[in-house]
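Newbie here. two chains, one complex. Structure please?
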Amino acid sequence: MRLSRYFLPVLKETPADAQIVSHRLMLRAGLIRQHTAGIYNWLPLGYRVLRKIEQIVREEQDRSGAVEILMPTVQSADLWRESGRYEDYGKEMLRIVDRHERDMLYGPTHEEVVTDLFRSIARSYKDLPRNLYQIQWKFRDEVRPRFGVMRGREFLMKDAYSFDLDEAGARRAYNKMFVAYLNTFARLGVKAIPMRAATGPIGGNLSHEFLILAETGESGVFVHKGVLDKTVPADVDFDGDLQPIVDDWTSLYAATDEMHEEGAGAELGDDLVSARGIEVGHIFYFGTKYSKPMGCTVAGPDGAPVDVHMGSYGIGVSRLVGAIIEACHDEAGIVWPEEVAPFKVGLINLKSGAAETDAVCEDLYAKLEKAGVDVLYDDRADERAGAKFATMDLIGLPWQVIVGPKGVAAGVAELKNRATGERVELSFDAILARLAG
Amino acid sequence: MRLSRYFLPVLKETPADAQIVSHRLMLRAGLIRQHTAGIYNWLPLGYRVLRKIEQIVREEQDRSGAVEILMPTVQSADLWRESGRYEDYGKEMLRIVDRHERDMLYGPTHEEVVTDLFRSIARSYKDLPRNLYQIQWKFRDEVRPRFGVMRGREFLMKDAYSFDLDEAGARRAYNKMFVAYLNTFARLGVKAIPMRAATGPIGGNLSHEFLILAETGESGVFVHKGVLDKTVPADVDFDGDLQPIVDDWTSLYAATDEMHEEGAGAELGDDLVSARGIEVGHIFYFGTKYSKPMGCTVAGPDGAPVDVHMGSYGIGVSRLVGAIIEACHDEAGIVWPEEVAPFKVGLINLKSGAAETDAVCEDLYAKLEKAGVDVLYDDRADERAGAKFATMDLIGLPWQVIVGPKGVAAGVAELKNRATGERVELSFDAILARLAG
């Protein structure tokens, strides 16, 4: 993509109303623009990141055996009356009345809709187990939306719902999601720690939150430092027994300040570390909380109806954009992990309009594109080198290729690693080999 | 994907309330389930088709130089007061009041939001031309939703918005979309004809609809039969002059019955044919209709402010699923064009549970998956051959591989082309070579 034809409104000033670093950087780097309180336009650069995250989340859900569907954003209120949550949910639910005076709502979550869908289709225990997931926009009418996409009103979630015959089956479904989440966050290039959690309005008695560690995180956390070194096993067999992996990850102390009791873990001494984190995932087992009132049953092996055991599993996809920035930035701007970077390479022409640098840049650009490398080419003729450097550091692409007249005369350009700041001069072919290899 | 682990509720009965063939087939083939009037759940098979269409639309927008963004579904009513459309839009607009008593709405279209976004960013004629597009859910509170996803309330659109300095520039933007649409529909495997259209509530004075021809189409159309044979030029240069292509496609008579005047085209004699079609795209040039009241100006080359010239360009992405089925089906079910088929291959095990057919099927399944071919493997042990054949024909995958005990003994399986009905017996290796080649 040529920057001269893109839509990348970077801001020099720090927006006054943005209180946290991810919100400031998302506005400054031209990832989002506010439409109205808590509701954002995703600009081209931000939307590319959002879609990359979404795709990684999708691939890891698929790998675990979950099946993708899409439920509507606008729901019938009647189902929420069946489950008993319609009155409980309070003002965070955006209630809507349609032209025929029917009560509708913009879904803040989809337990009712998916339970209704499943009960209309599943007949027998042979239709189990299933895990249905979607990646869909939701709305929560926050009284005071803030922190950009971290606490917005319209937000993108991955939400999965498992259906099993009994608690043992549901536990297996829960473990699959637990491990899929470990895989997902590892691929996103961040450290996420599962912590036992309160279940809140979703209900149920088994629940974990996943928090990304970041110095600027919203929540205090207390963790055994051994948790920080744990790795995710490669090539998990999702049909196998995942309990040992779950046990391994949950054997050491890890709690949000909400769940941490004064003095808990004191026996750990220096092994207990205090840190900060951002919640990006939450998984729940809640048994028959929805299936029972809503009549979601299947015929068991003996023919008698059984209430289906369910769980639900969320990942805050749009929130992750902010959370990753909280974990991955420096003074100059964002430092994207390569897996979610909007482009892999930023190509800087230090003297756009000069025949020699133009020719080299056009050639590098064409060859990188042809090799399938995502490149953002700063070909702007009316920007100085300093502004181009600052923009490229701000938007945080993993690699910068800097082409200037002196280097071109010597047959080299500079390759800069955004994360380490390391710069090397290389021949054009060597740069291509490094980036397209 | 193994059917035993999928979520594919096919119906044997024809749903009573579905009046058109695409609606009936989408319900019967397990593509969608209604949530409430005009609002649908997309089941796994249907959602795969929707995403394939979405991706082709996206690639052709990108190729034309349009840049992808995402605007919110929930919009502030204030912008619609600025443009003057808030009161005009009537009851089809889903109006919402948030917890702070602010007037909001679920966007039926995004001219106001994108104009507001663009005016907050563009400063100079150097920021033009631009074309910003999104693929986003919209809501139109139809008084009588019907025909499944063809006239639903919550629906997925691709909508693009172009910004130019003057009418000549806007015409170039219009032509790019015109040609991008020809490319898009050709890739989707259907015949779509551009026809001069009324502009309706979007406004403006230049507009074309694109209609897919289908015998069961909703609209009558009158076209010079020469239009039916026109092809889309390969490898268009979107920076070049596209007017000749547009002129070529619009030189012959083509009109919907709405635009067709009694007796028009009579001089064409037998060259004028009457057919039926389904609107799947609509493009508009409307000049300064929104930029002027909303103050979307840029500094022109002389420094004086200029109202930006705009156009908007829609494709009904969810509607296309139904429209393609209207154009592509037979007595037995759907016949997907390969480009949008949810899976390329359906693998039928005629005797699931028998060691010999199981072994052959597992081997074929693994090898096809490894080669990157999307396969739906009917491994169900409790279904008869007849039901498996009927299901596979109904869901319309382009290729069926039929593995039975007799064939396995002879070292062959049957390869069936869904569209032609042609069947050939081939060795397993020959089948792999045909499908993965």
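Moderator note: The longest strand of chain A covers residues 272-287. Chain A has a mean pLDDT of 95. Thread marked as resolved.
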